[in-house]
Write a structure and sequence with these properties.
The chain has about 150 residues and is mostly helical. About 55% of the residues lie in helices and about 5% in strands. The chain contains 4 helices and 2 strands, in the order αααββα. The chain has helices spanning about 20-45, 50-80, 85, 115-130; strands spanning about 90-95, 105-110. The chain has a two-stranded antiparallel ribbon with strand order 1-2. The longest helix is centred in the middle third of the chain and has 34 residues, at about 50-80.
């Protein structure tokens, strides 16, 4: 009778949509930045050098947040390039018996197909190169097929 009153509102990570996962990641970056700035404010008078370190950490978190938002916008644009019907190629969409792992087929608009994974990997590689991250010189080219409608 009371079971519904005491259920945890928490959901498993695997049940979250892409939008919800992104929101959690962005919120975590914002929270970390605020926490670091609060530490900096507390330390500033007696330990100015330590306060500066926390301010710099907050800046890093803010950069992470902006990067997540930018990557999301780029992935949305890539998906839109494929068009409504064509974008299904980017996700795990299989007819029954098309793949032995999914004998009943699957329509999963959360997980990427190999084409979708390559498309997103290309965006990630481009972003790493655009930001001139140290990792960039270690990356090899990834060629995903161009968007087709």
């Amino acid at each position: 009778m009371f079971a519904g009153l005491f259920r945890s509102p928490k959901r498993s990570f695997s049940s979250l949509t892409e939008q919800e996962i992104l929101a959690v990641a962005i919120a975590a970056e914002e929270d970390d930045s605020r926490i670091y700035l609060a530490y900096a404010d507390t330390l500033r008078q007696d330990y100015p050098a330590s306060a500066t370190v926390f301010e710099e950490m907050a800046e890093v978190e803010d950069t992470h947040r902006k990067t997540l938002i930018d990557m999301h916008r780029k992935s949305e644009m890539a998906i839109k390039q494929f068009g409504g019907e064509g974008s299904k190629k980017l996700f795990l969409q299989l007819r029954p018996n098309e793949n032995p792992n999914y004998p009943k087929g699957v329509e999963d608009n959360t997980h990427f197909s190999p084409l979708g994974a390559l498309t997103m990997a290309n965006l990630a590689v481009a972003g790493i190169r655009e930001l001139k991250l140290d990792l960039a010189h270690r990356l090899k080219g990834i060629d995903a097929p161009a968007a087709t409608k």
